[in-house]
Structures are given as C-alpha cells and as structure tokens.
Amino acid sequence: MFNNSAGGNSRRFLYMERIFSHGKLLISSEYLVLDGALALALPTKLGQEFFFEEKSDNQSIIKWESLCRGEKWFKSKIDYNKWEVLETDDAQSAEFILEILKEIQRVSKVKLQNSETYSLKTNLEFPRNFGLGSSSTLMNNLALWAEIDPFRLNEKMLGGSGYDIAVAKEASALLYRKGLDNREIEKVHYSPMFKDELLFVHLNQKQNSREGIRLYQSKNKSEELIKEFSDLTEKIFRCQDLEDFSELMDFHEEKLSVFLGLETVKKTYFPDCPVFVKSLGAWGGDFVMTRKFQGYENFFHGHGFHTFFDWNEIIK
Asked: Whole-prediction pTM value?
C-alpha cells in the first residue's frame, strides 16, 4: 500500500492561510463526459493544499513554491507588474504558472490588483503520476483564493469537461453532465453495499489525457451513444449487487473499447485476471478499479503493480 507522508510536513505552513481541494476519480463515461454524457465521479481523500500570505510593500512580486508530499519540486519568483520570471528552477512550469496568474489578474477584483508581495505555496498530497487531479485541485484552490469562477479559469487554461473542478469545488461524489452553455452538478451520497470488495490499482504511470482526448475527438459521436453511457451511469449509480456491478463495468469497458478502437486495460495488462478491470479516466494509465478475489495481492504484485488501495483508504 502507498504511505502518504504529507501530514507531518504540512505543519511547517501553519503561519500561512490554507485552502484545500480534494482529488478525483472518474467512475463512468470517461471521454464521453466531454459531449454531455452523465458521469459519476468520486472525491479522494488525498488532494492539494494551497498556502498564502500577502505583504503590502509595493514590490509586485509573487514568490511561488510547489511541493509534492512536503518535498520541494518547483520554485519561482515572478514580477507581476512586468510579468517576468525573475528566478526559477523549472522554466516550463514557471511559464505555466505565470500564464495562470496573468489570467487571475485579468478577472479577479481582489488579487494581483495592487503592488503587494504574495507568498504562495502548494503541497500535492499524492505522487504527481497518480492522476488524481494535480491540475484541477490547483485551479480550484487558486480560484477560491482569487474569488473567481474555477470553471472559467480551468476552461481558459486547460479545457476539458470540468467534472474534476466540480469534484474539487463540491468535495462530494457527483453525478455530472456538461451542457453547451451550462453544467448539471448533483451532489450524491455514493457508498455501495459492496464497496469493501472494490480495489483501486495504480498502473505505475500517468496517462497523457490530452492524447486520449484527441483520439476520442477524432471519432464520430452520436446522441444514441451519449444516451447509452448516461443510462449506464444511472445503472452503475443505483446498483447494489456486486455481480451486477461487475457486469456493468465489463460492458462499459467493452463498449468504449470498440468505440475508441483501443484494447481494454484488462486485455493489455491483466488478460488472466478472473474479475473485471475498469479504467478510471484516461485509458492506459493512472488508476483502474477492480474487485478483490482470492490471492489478488500476489496477482497484482506478480504483474508488477504494487500500489493499490481499498475503498476507505482512497475515497473520501
């Protein structure tokens, strides 16, 4: 099992104000959520912290530091009057942060409007290759800090369906549907009777979701397909029988496999697995969901996958 060690390290930030957003796992309608399919998404216990303090000194400086599980991985100093990176140890990350902050200055009425010095620090509670929402939690934290709409900030900077922003914002399980000009967000209680039999396995890599989205967008979608996955989400949400749930997971995987023209994650990594294996989000990386079976720990270890969680270890 993965051991999160961020808790003890976060105490060093107590002098700063703190915002926190939960990570996410997408249970159904991956990719199709972009075109209005109803999706079920869950918040994770692990997320991202954002610490901040401001000082009136007429400097117009942002001191930015990013940590992962309490360990520094990126640092930058930005002049937000001239919008110049003054110091950094990662030019690409610094440019990305600069562009986000520039957008915040454009739309916020309360931040980056005068000449304060801002000390901003993030702490990601999970490894960066987990795919639990390092970007979405950052966007939500920054939007809360700047008192702006996180969906608009995310759309401007990253795009996507916005389900991950909704989970970060609501800190709840959600039924989510993206419309042309709006979104439907229903906070739900999701705790199936068989949850203790479910398992979440990390595939040792973070999938580039943009590549998967490009493949998906190259395909012709129909209203019938969107409706079929919306109906599947409804069935998954209501299901309280593990065998029925397993069949729904298999059907979801096979249906999307045919549409995308990609092998299921089970065929790719676990062809001998005796139970369902369901991709959660972008195919080919991040987490999958499966169910426990006799000898499952030795099975996944034997296939080279050593990081897995029970429901209560990862789901909020």
From this structure: 0.91
